[in-house]
Write a structure and sequence with these properties.
7-stranded mixed beta sheet; single chain; 7 strands; 13% strand; 350 residues; alpha/beta
């Protein structure tokens, strides 16, 4: 969809994007200064609490690091409000087309009384203002203005390539039916559709506003997706119905108790012999101890992700096997081992 931001909104979005990019240079300065005092990696504590006791005071004593933390914290706190302000400036011009694309030719299927888990209800994931449903056009605000305009430019388009790589890792060929759990505004769904253009794709999310943005993309690009509102723990889909069940970047937003429930639901709806493929952030055991501390500091402690550490410290393959899958692996893709991908096969019936 074509649209033009007004000068004030465009400047706010570009400032935040540039601030994040430029502040990364402070991280290089802080790392270089800290390197003079950090012990060898294998002599650092192995546990997260010990790493924080050892490394956090050292880094927070460096002025460049304190400035870096200020920039990142402020960017997280401000990005949702800045994007909403930018949208309000163009609301009158874009809302008719957004409404049309949301309903024509298909529209998402809403739940009458969706059960909202405690970990989700009212929470501001990634400190987005109001959470995923915090604005009547939050799907466009998050999926378009934040994700495409603020976040993706800092990663040179790698975010979408990473999502697509997870879909490509699925050990299936020509699947007839695919279910995506936690589709949000549809970025990973796009990658799934590109890898498997002939599959019937269904996708669910708890957020009505994010589903609406995914529907807009599908309608605009003539993609026959079936989008519906549901939690990953209870999709309402038939048993043994999908050749592939998949998700990306959702599990680090879940407590492990919920992750176990979602995996049991994945098992239920995957056909015998089919696969569940889950992509997400890198597991802590694949990092050096120094890298593990940095990931925990910026995501668990300062990133608005309360379950990041819980996810990154848990072996998803073991959870999948406990749920009843016949085989499961959980490994990083490529030389950088990013993202980490769970590939779990459901056993065949006899």
């Amino acid at each position: 969809m074509q649209y033009t931001l007004h000068q004030h909104g465009r400047a706010g979005i570009e400032f935040l994007s540039d601030l994040r990019l430029m502040s990364d240079r402070l991280e290089q300065v802080a790392d270089a200064r800290a390197a003079q005092h950090i012990p060898a990696d294998d002599s650092l504590p192995d546990d997260i609490a010990g790493l924080h006791r050892t490394l956090t005071p050292l880094f927070e004593d460096i002025p460049a690091f304190r400035m870096l933390r200020l920039c990142r914290d402020w960017t997280l706190e401000a990005h949702g409000r800045v994007a909403i302000t930018a949208f309000e400036e163009i609301r009158e011009a874009v809302s008719p087309e957004l409404d049309r694309l949301q309903t024509t030719p298909r529209r998402p299927r809403y739940a009458e009384n969706p059960a909202k888990p405690d970990y989700w209800d009212g929470f501001e994931f990634h400190k987005s203002a109001g959470g995923w449903d915090g604005h009547d056009y939050m799907g466009f605000v998050h999926g378009e203005l934040i994700h495409r305009k603020m976040v993706n430019p800092n990663f040179a388009g790698l975010i979408y390539a990473t999502r697509k790589s997870v879909a490509a890792a699925a050990p299936v060929s020509n699947p007839a039916r695919i279910l995506e759990i936690g589709c949000c505004s549809g970025q990973y769904t796009q990658g799934v559709a590109e890898i498997f253009p002939h599959a019937k794709i269904s996708a669910c999310d708890l957020s009505a506003r994010q589903l609406e943005q995914a529907q807009r993309y599908a309608n605009e690009h003539n993609l026959d997706w079936e989008l519906f509102q549901a939690a990953g723990e209870a999709t309402g889909q038939p048993d043994d119905n999908f050749d592939l069940v998949t998700s990306y970047a959702m599990f680090h937003e879940l407590p492990i108790t919920a992750a176990k429930s979602v995996l049991r639901e994945c098992l239920r709806v995957t056909r015998p012999g089919g696969y569940t493929v889950i992509g997400d952030v890198k597991a802590y055991h694949a990092f050096s101890r120094m890298e593990r501390w940095a990931n925990d500091y910026w995501n668990q402690e300062h990133g608005g992700d309360p379950f990041w550490r819980e996810y990154a410290s848990t072996n998803l393959a073991e959870l999948a096997l406990d749920a009843g899958f016949a085989e499961a692996s959980w490994e990083g893709l490529g030389p950088a081992q990013y993202p980490f991908v769970l590939i779990a096969r459901k056993g065949t019936t006899t």
